[in-house]
Amino acid sequence: MAWYPGAVKMELQPESDSQPAIRPTQFIVHSIVAPWTARRTYEYWRDSTNLESHFGVDYTGTVGQYIGTHTRADANAGANRRPDGTGAVSAETASNLSATDTWNDKQIEGLIALGAWLHKEEGIPLRICRSHDDPGFGYHSMFPQWSTDGTSCPGKARIKQFREVVFPGIVARATGRSTEEDDMPISDADAKKIAHAVWETDGFFTVPWGTKENPEWAAESVLRHVGEVTRESRGRIKELQAAVGALSGVVTKLAAGGGLDAAEIQAAAEAGAAAALAKLGDVLTDQA
Known about the structure:
Helix content is about 45%, strand content about 10%. The protein has 8 helices and 6 strands; from the N terminus they run E-H-E-H-E-E-E-H-E-H-H-H-H-H. Strand 3 and strand 4 (about 65) form a beta hairpin.
């Protein structure tokens, strides 16, 4: 079994030794609907009920641990232990008597530190659970399979905090990045370095550009110009195809013994060839 080094160990017996093992894949947070300390929560589990959570987080930010994370605790109904041996780690948190208050800063810090440790220690993935048996992080009322008779736990205010503060904080702590670092704007100098690093991977900046419309490399204008040239080239190709078709008609008529005289043949050939060469020259010039 695993014990969180940031918690005060208050081991419940006989549950800690007698309840079946689990492979923890989820972390589910609760409100206990009482302003209890971590020790008072332990005493309640020990003396007043056959239910329990793995952890308790009180208003001072103290984290108590009552059962090792590889042992089933009975706070999450169907998520306690599944037929495949997976189960959820649970944390009860002190609240007012109606579970309508928010977590204070110390509680938030306690949950974030615990969640980051569970990710590193147990491999719980850094995502909010997508279904009742999907590995990740969640809160008690998220899925009906986690509660036998329905619940609003941990309360609307704390659900909002979980999504906007606690879970993002766990991700930031586990990945070693602070939220301040994530929110820092990128400087113009860094943006240019990134742009060059991306484009220069295939030598993009090493080829001279040199057109009057775009004397320097700029990805957006270059791509736009290439698109315009491509559209123009398609139109001119159609014109070339028409000119070639006219020449082909003359050749076909001749092969059939048609009545073209020498002047007519020469005029058609000169017109078709001149048009074809002019259009081809325009295309090649624009693409150069």
